[in-house]
Design brief:
This protein is of the alpha+beta class. It is 39% helix and 17% strand. It binds zinc ion. Zinc ion binds next to helix 3.
């Protein structure tokens, strides 16, 4: 999808990272508004942004933008956007704040596994 047409419907992660993603996309768009975005998703608790081809002169700048977004996401709850940390004891790996983490633990307990 063209970067100018990407909205959060396209993001394969929860809404807590929306601001981080939009900020990154805005900065990339400012360099080149014709870039294709292949996929934006959560993987192993981290944010991944996959882009199509672009001019090599933007390599460093775009790499830096994506790195900053990914780094921020590691410290941001994927569900609500509050400060979070990586949780790997809930059956899968997610970056969550204390509240969302507790909710997941409760739900897990209520299901009995
Ligand atoms: Zn949260």
């Amino acid at each position: 999808m063209k970067i100018t047409e990407v909205t959060n419907d396209f993001f394969e992660c929860d809404d807590g990272w929306n601001n981080i993603i939009y900020e990154a996309l805005d900065r990339i768009k400012a360099l080149d508004s014709n870039i294709e975005v292949y996929q934006i998703k959560e993987k192993f608790g981290g944010l991944r942004i996959y882009l199509g081809a672009y001019d090599v002169k933007y390599d460093d700048a775009i790499e830096q933008i994506i790195l900053e977004a990914e780094t921020k996401a590691w410290d941001t709850c994927e569900k609500c956007g509050q400060p979070g940390t990586l949780r790997n004891d809930i059956g899968w790996i997610l970056t969550l704040c204390d509240n969302c983490y507790q909710e997941v633990l409760e739900r897990k307990k209520n299901r009995g596994y």
